Amino acid sequence: MPENPLYVTRPELPPLEEFLPHLEKIWESRQLTNSGPYHQDFEEALARYLGVEYLSLFCNATIALITALQALRISGEVITSPYSFPATSHALLWNGIKPIFVDIDPITLNIDANRIGDAITPNTTGILPMHCYGQPCDVNHLQNIADNYNLRLVYDAAHAFKVEVDGKSILNFGDLSVLSFHATKVFNTFEGGAIISPDTKTKQRIDRLKNFGYVDEQTVVAPGINGKMSEFNAALGIVQIQYADQVLERRKAVANRYIQRLKLLKGIRIVESTNHSYFPILITAAYPLTRDELYNRFRESNIWVRKYFSPLLTEFPMYRDFPSADPKNLPNAINASRNILCLPLFPSLSNSEQDRVLKILESA
Ligand code: T4K
C-alpha cells in the first residue's frame, strides 16, 4: 500500500478557535476590506516584529512587486536573476520593463554582483535581485553598484521573512523590499504580501498606488491598482504573528536534523537557507543518481519534492529569445536548475516522515 503523500510544505495555521472570534468580529462590523482595523493593527504589529519602520500590506507579493516598480517609476532595462519564481521577472514585463538576466553565484544561488557591471547599459534603471531561499544577497556590493550607476534597487524578499544581517532586518536594504505571505511561505496569511519602504513619503505613495491611486473620495493622483489585503487575511496575520518565533525555531530544528544526516552523504551539497524557508540540496556528480532519477524515486514513494527553480526563467517562451537569456551567459544558473531539489520542510514534519525522505537519499 502506498504511503501517505508527503509534500514539500504544509502551511502552518493557528488553532481554529483562536481565529473564530476575529471572524465573528468581522461579520458583525461588516468592515471586510479597505484599510479596516485589522489591516491597521496587523501592519503595525508586523513592522514591529520584523524590525522595520514603513510597511504596506498587500494581497500578494506579485502585485506588490508590480507596484514597487511603479512606485519608483522604473522603466527601460532592469538587471535580475534567471534563478527565481516567474513572479520576479513577470513583474518587470507587466511594467513594460525589459529584464536583463545575469548569472548567479554558485554558492548562494543569488545574483552574482560581480557580473552586474558588464550588463549595465545607458537604458539600465534598476536591479531586481532575489534573496534566494532567504539567503541574503551581497547587499553592500549591490548598494555600491546602485550608487555608482544611479540605479534603483528593489529586492524580491518573498523568501526572506525575518532574515537579519548583523542584527538588522534584510528588508531595510535597498530602495524597497517585497515579502510574500503565500500559503507555502514561512509566514502565511493564506495569500498576502508587503512592501517595505525607507520613509513615510514612499509608504504613502505605495499605499495610494495599492488603492487605485486614491487620496480621498474625490482625488485620484496615480494610475493605481487594487493591491489591498482584506480584513480576513489581516486578522489571520494578527494570530499567526504570535506563533512566528515558534515556527521559525521548529523549522530550524527540522533543518538541523536533515543537516546532521546529509552532511555524511557523498554527492549531496546542502544550500544554505538562513530562515530555513526551504531545504534545498544540489545533487553533484559524486552522487549515485542524477537529480531526475532521484526525483523519480521520491515520486514513486509518494514524496513530492520540488525543483525550485527549474526550468530557469530564461527557458520560458516570453524570455528565451532575449540576448541575456543565452545559456552561455548563465552557466551557474543552469547548473543549479539541473541539480536542485527542495526537500519537505515544515514545522509539523514528524521524525518518521523525515526519515522516509532521508531513507531514499541514503539508500541510493
Ligand atoms: N517571488 C518569489 C521569489 C517567489 O518564490 C514567489 C512565490 C513570489 C515572488 C510571488 O509570491 P506570491 O504572489 O505568491 O505571494 C509556490 C507558491 O504558489 C508561490 O507563492 C511560491 N513563490 C513558489 C516558490 O511556490 P507552486 O506552484 O510550487 O505551489 P503549489 O501549489 O504546487 O504548492 C506546493 C506544495 O505546497 C503543494 O504540493 C502542497 C503544498 N500546499 C500548497 C498550497 C497552495 C499546501 O499544502 N496548501 C496550499 O494551500 O508555487
Estimated share of beta-strand residues: 15-25%
Mean pLDDT: 97
Any idea how many domains?
2
Structural class call reads alpha/beta
At CATH level 3, the topology of the largest domain is Aspartate Aminotransferase, domain 2
Can you summarize this structure?
It is built from 11 helices and 16 strands.
Structure in words:
Helix 2 packs parallel to helix 7, helix 3 crosses helix 4 and helix 8 packs parallel to helix 11. The protein has 364 residues and is an alpha/beta fold. The strands form 5 sheets. A 7-stranded mixed beta sheet has the order 2-10-9-6-5-3-4, sandwiched between helices. Strands 13-14-16 form a 3-stranded antiparallel beta sheet. The protein has a two-stranded parallel sheet with strand order 1-15. It has 2 domains: 222 residues, Type I PLP-dependent aspartate aminotransferase-like (Major domain) (Aspartate Aminotransferase, domain 2, 3-Layer(aba) Sandwich), CATH 3.40.640; 118 residues, Alpha-Beta Complex (Aspartate Aminotransferase, domain 1). The mean pLDDT is 97. The longest helix is centred in the last third of the chain and has 19 residues. The chain has 11 helices and 16 strands. The chain is globular, with a radius of gyration of 21 Å. 36% of the residues lie in helices and 16% in strands. The chain binds ligand T4K.
